[in-house]
Structure prediction request, 532 residues.
Amino acid sequence: MDTRRLILFVIFSFSIMLLWDAWQQQHAPAPVAQQEAMQTSPADKPQENGFKLSQGTRIAVKTDRYAAVIDTVGGDLRQLSLLEHKADDNSGPYELMSDASADKLYVAQTGLKGDGLPTHYVTFTAAETNYSLQEGQDTLEVRLTAPETNGVAVDKVYRFHRGQYLIDVQYEIKNNSDKAISPSVYYQIIHDNESNQGSKMMPTFTGGAYFTEADKYNKVKFDEMAKKDVSINAKDGWVGLVQHYFVSAWVPQSTAERKFYTTKLSEHDFSIGTILPVGEIAAGSSKMVDAKLFSGPQAQDDLAAAAPGLEYVVDYGILTVIAKPLMWLLTHIHELVKNWGIAIIVLTILIKAAFFKLSASGYRNMAHLREMAPKMQSLKDKFGDDKQKLQQAMMEMYRTEKINPMGGCLPILVQIPVFISLYWVLLGSVELRHAPFFGWIQDLSATDPYFVLPVLMGATMIIQTFLNPPPTDPIQAKVMKIMPVAFSIFFFFFPAGLVLYWLVNNILSIWQQWAINRMIHAEAVAKKGHGK
Prediction:
């Protein structure tokens, strides 16, 4: 398979992936657990009687990684900025959660269900309105107190930790009444269905997600939530909100069985959460209910440490088995070279070296076809439009010269899964977000601002066409002249890191193909010189 066939094959592969993704979004069946689960009754999950997010006193929280705002209404986490990650436009820290705009809503809520217990509608009180993690302090505690009702006192406590994207959220329930209570606790995230959807050329997934040991990792689209509330019984697991590069997930620390649910709050706003029993609290006794909220970037080590299965939010698709080792290798290369762009170049060289012999067999076959181009043209001139005789003559020539016209296909087919896996790695890894290379490329996850890399890649493709056997079909020849330009424009919208990989790969391929062409040509000249 020559380069022109490779280009067409890659375009076809990407097209199939995009079509498959679009088909799944429209037609894919819901997970089995979702299809079979009983619908949760209104008494089993928190309900919204006309969605409205009230505001009370705002409590500012500052740690080494977060700038957060907690509202006394519900003790909700209403705003959350990641201080170590920049906004898309580099204007400041990345704002992950916010309730400032109706067009971009992202809030973490919790509540207790039971007679008089505080839901996310109840107003809490706090000792202060500003909390800050001090030098030498590893944990910052924010305590909120609910009004005592029916003899039950409840404190909601946030604990932020230095160097972590994991927040402890604890309820301290003191039953001062004269009878036992059996409350339930719920944790949910509210998000709109329009923000953080990527671009038209590079759409990304934003929606709900959950994980259980039985059903593993599943995503829930907002379109699915709009059609029908999801209700799933589970023995364990977490529930959260996934978007490109970032994730928030509620991880209950209880081993009690729970239900995952979604609720349509308004035309554009949805909640996804989990509810589980606290257990009986006898009169005069108390109980603490613990959960963790992971809210931050999709860094593999942090995800794996936070909860089982949370690392699956970095979704490389069906080629995860190849993509994960590639990301592991890329990460370790970066530890040595300290530059993600250079790490991509080194990884490309290593991949090229691994496939060197396999690629050489394909290029050698193409070089032989290049040497046979004059004979192929003469056959075409001889048989004209008689395609059957032309085909027979060409096959006879291949047999005589011991050339396999499809000899380059296998090496390319073997490498295609690696190419596609690396595509997903470079597209989905938060480590490359705002990672500089050098000069004008200050963000490998964004497009090249001056389109230098796509233009250079187009130039390498043009060079490759001159190294390949010339097409005998005039229409194909015209297509192959246009293809490098069209393909370069296509790559104008790709992340610079991905284009860098393709550019380096093309340069290495040109060098290898040129060397093999030269060697085969020398052999052909020597053959003629001996009169064979």
